[in-house]
Design brief:
InterPro entries: Sig_transdc_resp-reg_C-effctor, Tscrpt_reg_LuxR_C, WH-like_DNA-bd_sf. Pfam families: GerE (PF00196). Keywords: Membrane, Transmembrane, Transmembrane helix. It comes from Litoreibacter janthinus. This protein is an all-alpha fold. It folds into two domains: 71 residues, no CATH class; 88 residues, 3-Layer(aba) Sandwich (Rossmann fold), CATH 3.40.50. It has seven helices and no strands. α1 crosses α2, α4 crosses α6 and α5 crosses α6. The longest helix has 38 residues. The chain is elongated and about 75 Å long. The chain starts with a helix and ends in an 11-residue tail after the last helix. The C terminus is likely disordered.
Length: 183
């Protein structure tokens, strides 16, 4: 993540320098140019460019997060998945994105060393993240996490069937005897 910040800062500095150069070279007369004015213009352009870059980055990140959540939320035509269960509960449990990713890998059956290799981190980091996952979720082991997710997936699969059974049962009841449908 620090590499992104360094590249972003370099880009902001370069853009501010280019804007300053353009104004000094093509807008100002030579007698108007002094060190204080050039420094002030650079500072102004740096601040404005940094603000625009920060706003754009946060908006893009929010958009991509929304897209990812919509993609993973089960819809009418989407299959129920382990990732969906983890991501639904990650917010309630207060998991970071890294912790949610580790939880997803765990429920898919990967070992700590395999997770560390895929994520490009140390096994100790994965173990630490697993400890935080267990603490935040109230679960005590990877087996409880896997069992919880499996139970949730089974419950999600049964929900549409239960709705269909309830609808067909209500449709067969006489009009006066129909029970209100629970939502």
């Amino acid at each position: 993540m620090s590499r992104i910040w360094v590249l972003g800062l370099a880009a902001v500095l370069a853009i501010a320098a280019i804007k300053t150069f353009v104004v000094v070279r093509f807008v100002l007369r030579p007698e108007q140019i002094d060190q204080a004015l050039v420094s002030g213009l650079f500072a102004l352009f740096f601040g404005l460019t940094a603000a625009v870059a920060y706003f754009s980055f946060t908006q893009l990140r929010a958009y991509l997060d929304r897209q990812r959540k919509e993609k993973l939320a089960p819809g009418v035509s989407e299959p129920v998945a382990k990732e969906t269960v983890i991501l639904r509960n990650a917010r309630d449990w207060g998991l970071s994105q890294a912790e949610a990713d580790v939880a997803i890998f765990v429920v898919k059956g990967f070992s700590n060393s395999e997770i560390a290799e895929m994520r490009g981190c140390a096994v100790a980091t994965v173990k630490s993240q697993l400890g935080k996952i267990y603490q935040k979720s109230g679960l005590e082991s990877r087996y409880q996490l896997i069992a919880f997710v499996t139970d949730e997936v089974c419950a999600m699969v049964k929900e549409p069937e239960d709705d269909n059974v309830q609808r067909s049962t209500q449709a067969s009841l006489p009009l006066a005897g129909r029970m209100p449908r629970a939502s």
